[in-house]
TrEMBL record, chain A:
Family: Belongs to the binding-protein-dependent transport system permease family. OppBC subfamily.
Keyword Metal-binding part of the UniProt annotation: no
Organism this protein belongs to: Marinobacter panjinensis
Occurrences of domain ABC transmembrane type-1 (ranges): 94-293
Gene3D superfamilies per record: MetI-like (1.10.3720.10)
Protein name per its UniProtKB record: Oligopeptide ABC transporter permease OppB
Automatic annotation (TrEMBL), chain B:
Lineage: Bacteria, Pseudomonadati, Pseudomonadota, Gammaproteobacteria, Pseudomonadales
Family to which the UniProt record says this protein belongs: Belongs to the bacterial solute-binding protein 5 family.
One GO CC term, this protein: ATP-binding cassette (ABC) transporter complex
Protein name in the entry: Peptide ABC transporter substrate-binding protein
Entry annotated with the keyword Signal: yes
Species: Marinobacter panjinensis
InterPro entries reported for this sequence: Peptide/Ni-bd, SBP_5, SBP_5_dom
Length: 306, 580
């Protein structure tokens, strides 16, 4: 296990570097730049702005300056939000997204797996149909549909909850973002769990266990659940990164101030350093959680060895 | 733990015992709860009690007054104004701000020499009077002596000298450095180009309260230009103490009616009353909260749920419904902005003035403003909006014709230019991705198709791509919008001079250029402007579509919203919230 982690770490460094390089090239290849504006300023003004942000240097030089700074943990100034560095932007927004995301993820696992198992055990009876109908509804209600609907119902019509804001993460402010975030994922997880559970319950080792007369609940929990969770965990690893790095929709509809809004705005504004900063963050999180998923496999399936 | 109980209940109904459930589910849950807790901890303790601050934002003091001193209206107990503000400002530094959302906040935090009155006219602010000498080459502003920074120190002419120099300083890299140059301030161009030091800029403090500006070329409208935030004073003491971090809450020092209280990016920015402001006793609103909501429909929902006093815009698709349901809350203020299509005159078929004329004639502007934009915009047949201060607004002959007459003239022009049914006009119309631009492009290209038989391809491009294509001249016809920087006709007319950086269509006319040059120094520039507009009516470098309005929803409880200010500058201190 220890050597496995070391190996992963060694691979992670070139992976992140490759990610930075590709993103850097792609970004600068996009037309326009951070300072392309509706009001075209005189050339001398533009030259001063570009000099301030090192954009007047050749691209390879900009790249090495950037990578050098990243190595020291400095993601540079934001091109768009001139009063902030990218580090400050990520520090202020990522914890919020991660907070909403962690709660959403909790709901996703508990309800997704719970409902999936329930549906599998009551296959082709009313609980199964109910759960699956709900799941299908959840899948066709992605968060960009769900979020405005929740606001319309609970904030505009009933006036039970505020339509947006964060206010230090008070419950009434984060309930809707969490629900909007979790709904479609819960539906997905329930479907994956159900099919995987049904398949596992038909395996020979379950039949053996039943032949031995082990009570049904013990079979499900002690023997069937772990192998049935393997595909679920494969789905949840990457999904987790997506959930805790927030969503543009959630941030835009609820003004939560999370990191999701920076994804799209960074690209629209050609805020090079912000896009790269977020790319690096998401890249590192993805590497970490893929490793976590692989470690979970060894616990779920004793045949897996590293 | 309630979750585990729910989970238990579900599984118990399937005939399972609690102990087994805990055995396998617990380990997964513990991991997740730890994660959630880690996220909690990060938010609360990481940044000097962010959560605690956020919770106190709205705990504004009780309003000082129960009744409005002049009108006697009952005032709300909490004077907290919540404003929708379309996005997060690029900066709060007066010399770096470059967008309307930043401007909206900065005019509350800072006060310049002049301000925009309720009808858009220039009024004295920190300058109590001004005068020009030697043919408008020298301007002297006499400052009030009671201006205060929020740290209690006085605002003097030296602060203006410092901030104007700062604006053109290459070190700062301000986008609006050109604004000081376009005002004709001596040496601005050379300083920007790095040929002279910022100290050589034509600004001087004759004494603490006399600010003198020397111009390289005379202009008559310098006081109108000082309404703009680029020319606001900047607090030298805070900038030298904190460097680039001076605009952060706690570091920022400002001289307007409000000071920066808290700033949570993407959530809200809160400004609190500045007790040192020279007329603080007249300020009624204690706190102003600016909420950056990028989606117009999300903003509308926040307004409908009672969380905003005013929005920054209204989705075009909702206009018809809102006119029915909330007619008293829908405010449509004129705006000094023009919506138009720019022709690339160096590219066929637009190198032929007859084609440009035909296309301009054939746009049925009444249909557009009545059924598409619906915000009481005004059909435009010329470039400069009528609400521009002091402008002698005239219209071309074709504005008085009926639309069928215009269509007939358009067909004749096109026939003269050699386009027939067998040889139809073909071109591409470019716009940036946006619902309202799309609707207009579809409708107008359809008009050209039906009336003139033109085959128009409409293409949309992502914003920055659109801009770089347009600025490089890689287009035939493109959407263009222009909003005045200051309230004077030259801000529109100089758009089409040969040396203008925003004249993307490449049209050039020596007589036009000369007229605008002469107008700068003339006591009454209107004759020059009228003649310049006449040239545009003959040459059609652009096809004007409509003069814009600013549409917003304003709560009935909010009083003092400037409904007639075409500059759309809203000073929170001029408003108040009534109890009912």
């Amino acid at each position: 296990m220890f050597s496995f982690i070391i190996r992963r770490l060694l691979v992670a460094v070139p992976t992140v570097l490759a990610l930075i390089t590709v993103s850097f090239v792609l970004m600068h290849a996009a037309p326009g730049g951070p300072f392309t504006n509706e009001r075209n300023v005189p050339e001398a003004v533009m030259e001063n702005i570009e000099a301030k942000y090192n954009l007047d240097k050749p691209l390879w030089q900009q790249y090495f300056i950037y990578v050098g700074n990243v190595a020291q943990g400095d993601l540079g100034p934001s091109f768009r939000y001139k009063d902030f560095t990218v580090n400050e932007l990520i520090e202020s927004s990522f914890p919020r997204s991660a907070y909403i995301g962690a709660w959403s993820f909790l709901f996703v696992v508990v309800f997704g797996v719970g409902l999936g198992v329930l549906a599998a055990l009551k296959q082709n009876r009313w609980p199964d149909y109910t759960v699956m109908t709900a799941a299908m509804t959840g899948v066709v209600f992605p968060n960009f549909v769900m979020a405005p609907l929740l606001v319309l119902l609970f904030a505009v019509t009933l006036r039970w909850l505020p339509a947006g804001g964060w206010e230090g993460g008070q419950v009434e402010y984060i309930v809707m973002p969490i629900i909007a975030m979790a709904t479609s994922y819960i539906a997905q997880v329930a479907r994956i769990t159900r099919s995987s559970m049904i398949e596992t319950l038909r395996s020979p080792f379950i039949r053996t266990a039943r032949a031995k007369g082990i009570p049904r609940h013990k079979i499900v929990l002690r023997h069937a659940l772990k192998p049935a969770l393997i595909p679920v965990v494969s789905y949840l690893g990457p999904a987790f990164v997506g959930i805790i790095t927030g969503s543009v929709i959630i941030d835009q509809v609820f003004s939560t101030g999370g990191i999701g809004q920076h994804f799209v705005n960074g690209a629209i504004n050609r805020d090079y350093s912000l896009i790269l900063g977020i790319t690096i963050l998401v890249g590192i999180l993805t590497i970490v959680f893929n490793a976590v998923v692989d470690i979970l496999y060894t616990w779920l399936d004793p045949r897996v060895r590293y | 733990m309630t979750l585990i109980n729910q989970q238990t209940k579900i599984i118990q109904r399937c005939g399972l015992s609690g102990s087994d459930v805990r055995h396998s589910v617990q380990s997964v849950l513990i991991l997740l709860v730890l994660l959630a807790l880690a996220a909690c901890g990060g938010e609360g303790k990481g940044k000097a009690g962010v959560a605690a601050l956020a919770a106190t934002d709205i705990s504004a003091p009780e309003a000082r007054l129960r009744e409005h001193p002049e009108t006697g209206e009952r005032l709300a107990r909490k004077q907290v104004l919540v404003r929708g503000n379309a996005s997060e400002p690029a900066s709060l530094d007066p010399q770096l701000v470059q967008d309307t959302v930043g401007g909206a906040i900065v005019v509350d935090l800072f006060e310049g020499l002049t301000r925009s009155g309720p009808d858009g006219d220039t009024e004295p602010a920190l300058a109590k009077s001004w005068a020009s000498s030697d043919n408008n080459l020298t301007w002297t502003f006499h400052l009030r002596e009671d201006g205060r920074w929020s740290d209690g120190t006085g605002v003097t002419a030296h602060d203006f000298v410092y901030s104007w120099r700062r604006a053109v300083d290459p070190e700062l890299g301000s986008n609006y450095a050109y604004y000081i140059e376009s005002a004709g301030v001596a040496n601005a161009g050379e300083i920007i180009a790095g040929e002279k030091s910022p100290e050589t800029l034509g600004v001087r403090a004759l004494d603490d309260f006399t600010f003198e500006v020397s111009l390289a070329e005379p202009i008559t409208y310098l006081p109108d230009m000082t309404v703009h935030y680029t020319m606001f004073p900047a607090p030298r003491q805070a900038i030298e103490a904190h460097g680039a971090d001076w605009t952060k809450p706690g570091n920022m020092v400002s001289n307007g009616a409000y000071l920066l209280h808290t700033w949570h990016l993407g959530e809200k920015l809160v400004a609190a009353r500045n007790p040192y402001y020279r007329r603080d006793d007249q300020t009624i609103i204690d706190r102003v909260v600016y909420v950056p909501i990028e989606s117009a429909s999300a903003e509308l929902q926040r307004y409908a749920s009672g969380e905003l006093h005013m929005t920054s815009t209204v989705p075009v698709s909702q206009m018809a419904r809102l006119k029915k349901e909330r007619p008293d809350e829908l405010v449509m203020a004129p705006s000094i902005a023009t919506y138009m299509y720019t022709f690339n005159v160096n590219r066929s078929p637009f190198d032929d003035v007859r084609v440009r004329r035909a296309l301009t004639y054939a746009i049925d502007r009444n249909i557009i403003v009545s059924y598409i934009t619906r915000g009481e915009q005004m059909p435009a047949f010329s470039l400069t909006p009528p609400y521009v201060s002091g402008f002698d607004f005239r219209q071309p002959d074709y504005a008085t014709w009926s639309q069928p007459e215009r269509d007939e003239a358009a067909r004749q022009e096109l026939a003269k230019a050699g386009y027939t049914e067998d040889h139809p006009l073909e071109f591409e119309l470019l716009y940036n991705t946006d619902e309202s631009h799309k609707a207009l492009a579809i409708v107008i290209s359809q008009m050209w198709k039906e009336k003139l038989g033109a085959n128009v391809t409409i293409s949309n491009l992502e914003w920055k791509t659109f801009l770089s294509e347009k600025q490089a001249g890689n287009f035939g016809m493109a959407r263009h919008g222009w909003k005045g920087d200051y309230n004077e006709a030259s801000t529109f007319l100089t758009l089409l001079t040969s040396d203008s950086g925003n004249n993307d269509g490449g049209w050039s006319n020596p007589e036009y250029d000369q007229l605008l040059l002469d107008a700068r120094s003339s006591e009454d520039p209107n004759p020059y402007y009228v003649r310049a507009e006449e040239i545009l009516w003959q040459e059609f470098p652009v096809a004007p579509v409509y003069f814009n309005t600013t549409v917003a929803l304003v709560s009935p409880m909010l009083k003092g919203y400037p409904e007639n200010n075409p500059r759309n500058i809203i000073y929170s201190k001029d408003m108040y919230i009534t109890a009912d």
